[in-house]
Amino acid sequence: MSQSKKQANRLAKGGRIDRSRTLSFTFNGQSYQGHPGDTLASALLANGVDIVNRSFKYSRPRGIVAAGAEEPNAIVQLGSTEAGQVPNVRATQQALFAGLTARSTNGWPNVQRDMMGLVGKVGGKFMPPGFYYKTFMAPASMWMTYEKYIRKSAGLGRSPMEVDPDTYDHLHQHCDVLVVGGGAAGLAAALAAARSGARVIVADEQEDMGGSLLDSRETLDGKPADQWVAQVLEELAGCENVTLLPRTTANGYHDHNFVTLHERRTEHLSETAPLVNGHRPVRSRMHRVRAGQVILATGAHERPLVYAGNDVPGNLLAGAVSTYIRRYGVAPGNKLVLSTSNDYGYRAALDWKEAGREVVAIVDARQAPAGDWVEAARAQGIKVITGSAVIEAKGGSRVSAARVAKIDIDTFKVIGQAETLACDTIASSGGYSPVIHLASHTGARPTWRDDLLGFVPNLVKGVQACGGANGTYDLGEVLAEGVEAGVKAAAATGHAAPAVSLPQAKTLEQGPAAPLFQVPHEKPTLRAPKQFVDLQNDVTAAGIELATREGFESIEHVKRYTAMGFGTDQGKLGNINGMAIAARCLGRSIPEVGTTVFRPNYTPVTFGAIVGRHCRDLFDPERYTALHQWHVEHGAEFEDVGQWKRPWYFPQTINGKKETMHEAVARECLAVREKIGILDASTLGKIDIQGPDAREFLNRIYTNKWMKLDVGRVRYGLMCKDDGMLMDDGTTSCLGENHFLMTTTTGGAAGVLEWLELWHQTEWPELQVYFTSVTDHWATMTITGPEARKLLAEITDIDLDRDTFKFMDWRAGKVAGVPARVFRISFTGELAYEINVQANYAMHVWKTLFEHGDKYGLTPYGTETMHVLRAEKGFIIAGQDSDGSVTPEDLGMQWAVGYDKPFSWVGKRALSRSDTRRTDRKQLVGLKPKDPKVVLEEGAQIVFDPKHAIPMPMAGHVTSSYYSPTLDSGFALGVVKGGHNKLGETVYLPMADGQTHEAEIVSPIFYDPKGERQNV
Amino acid sequence: MFYIHCPYCGEHREEEEFHPKGQAHIERPKDPEACSDEEWGDYLFFRDNPRGVHHELWVHAVGCRKFFNVTRHTVTYEILETYKMGEQPRITAESLASQQTQGNVQVASGGQQTVGATNAAAPSVKGEQV
Description:
heterodimer, A: alpha+beta, Ubiquitin-like (UB roll), FAD/NAD(P)-binding domain, 7-stranded mixed β-sheet, 6-stranded mixed β-sheet, 27% strand, B: alpha+beta, Folate-binding fold, 4-stranded antiparallel β-sheet, 6 strands, 14% helix, globular, disordered C terminus
């Protein structure tokens, strides 16, 4: 490739760039050069790059329009490597660095020649708002297909397909005063607040703080305004109580002065964070700031005028033209026509002239503009055409001429002949709109001000707006307002601010503006060449007019129908113009039509910053039991149960071949049924309950009776919500007269504790009872199987005699020489002992059990085997076999319900409601597949009549289903309407693949129905 | 994200430390068996959804684990007060309405002046305890 082209539009002097150094970069494969201090946008303009993208819907060529966050067109994809891909970057906000690689996000095969462009040109009339919805609506099933191709041609940028090499941090910050925006108002506010001693954070989204002062024509104390900026920043940087955050965007303003700041720390240096001493620094930080007071000094965005062809490259905002000339030393063209409704726009023409370029004319919509700015322009010999506007831009890939005509704003008409002025650049200004995005995140609706022709923010507590964000544009007033806001904010947080002397601003007097939004054309809007309102979403004035004709009257509906202000744009340039057009079409005023509000984020935020360190291993905490390391060393496969890692099964290598899960589970099941198995049950929730009223409390919270449970005894209990539906189950043991130990399901532990506390604190505070979570303090090891007593007897001093230490008893003593509680409860149906020891002793006890257990065939088993064994016995898992709509009676557990307890316990009243008395409720049953080889799918729907026309009435579903090695058959638990009275009947399970399984309704207890094995 | 003053800890803490537990001051009927199905259904399932002042039950779940009450404006999300279990709110829809008719915009005890008009949205009295 040839050496990069000359920077044809670079001015010989001026701007805050370092001409002594040159940076090379590539855009769409072409290499160019710029200077430190450039943005990608200013460098592209310096190199005369007119087309930077193709538009979203019509694929029209688009150029750079703005110089900041409001840029709608120059949205690029960054990245020279796959891992470094970054979508959605505004070229106007991306600092130039050596080697920067960027591409347009839209346009295929390229932005110069685009296939869809023809559609946009020829077919434009056939793509009204709602085009996609209307055209591709039927059949609905095809939408997914259409959408894929529509999106492909639209091109919205793409995410990287490789792992992000960068790291991101979250910082939690507290401050007294958060100042958003480091322009004139923000710096004045920060200065006042800082001098009070308050803790201040100043966030500004740009490379340098200073805002409009960096390219201002105005002087402060007779000196260029950026000298004052430097002086203030120096003072602030020296204050210990001030944090300056440049390149930091306040993205979202949330409840109670919680503001998220996205600080980009390395994106101005290189694609991924550059290595420093072999370390990769953090690429960006998300500051989560809780501020005492917030000052919004977010400035204002210039509003473009809406005229025909206003999207042809070479149409810019007037303010952006000034910024490119004064801040970056770039004149983005040679012959300028300025179309304005106000005095502010005049600056662009004066700057253009001073840059040595030709100003063809200033076209002013006002009939008789007068005042300082107009006189200044005339004094420069610039032609001012009054009562007129640019009604149409001509040109294809670049503006070639402006059609200018007299207009009547009130009647929305062009008067007389249009005149064509040859030019390559049209700058327009319709005035300024305060940046109210953050203020609207709080839900506060903004207020229209006729004198400003703009919305100003309404504010919630603890926040002020100042300067442009508040509709104040005169520099002297802006500074004064900033100081006032800073003083007030400091005072509200208890800090008195000393006086701040402000520099004298020398500004020209601003005259009144004309209320011009859409410029009339000779043809009616619907037939005129396209007049764009929202360039990013390709929304035209005609589109909005059409929407109102189709009956969309609410601005919220117009927005959704046309997509105006959608996506990453958030209506920065187009919203007010769109509302004004809707108001005109509906014959209402703008405040009557109202405004849509804005959402976070203000500008796109990379997912890395949102996620911070909460990814991969740190995405969610992992909880390990005290025996975890043993499980790892013995090859356990793990299952996530809540945050716990539980052994799922322990595959063995037999004859050089590792067992499948099916084989391992079958082996583990048989070991328990025939010899002895061991389970790490430490994750079971454990709640220690003490107090003189502990027993009464249990009586009220559980469905069954607790008054007669003696010390040393254990009882299984059901817990319902007050709607009578099962919420959790578990055993509770009486440790002492006023002392109980409750167990909960692994996943239910935290919820059950909160449930107990809720009832105690809000309904029965008079009960003296105390709850303590002891889940982590105790490790639980279950040994179960016919050999369990023999094994335990070898290492305990507890008397295990079957008649003195009965089923559902617990005993204290020593196991393997350490203090233990041993509970004789069974979740497998076999003889079982649950050994509880302090977690730190667990590994010792576990290993001792294995030292003695080998000769009995002691086999570790995991949760899968636990499930098979418990389901064979018809033991439910709350939350699997029940789902919040299941009563104890639905589960066939009337035996655990104490209807005659004196206190109306939680859930009792609901069990006598007509709905809970229905006999056709879904009830828990066993399901025996007719074909023993079939293992039914959990969740499969059950029907009574498989020949019933679709939709078939659903009769229930499978809740648990496994293969039983003991029965050598599939078996399942499920809920079936009226199931308790349907034993022996056949039900059907139609599957997605067209098969229909048959199953017989049986008792849910498949194994040892009399419970003799656990009672030995 | 809310910034909530726990009346037991005496400190403002982040919302992440708390769990919301629904409408406050819902008392379980003293004699459930004496309730009709409809009355019991009302107690179980029916809650107010006012536009304006609302009293809510929260728990300082990863703090002191105490339940307490929050008076919150459902439009502005402003927390007007928090108070302990067993206490009654000082700020209600009625008290706020009468304050505002007296031209007093000082809403809460927090010492901050309400700025702008949005807070003045007269809270609906309808929907309070039926």
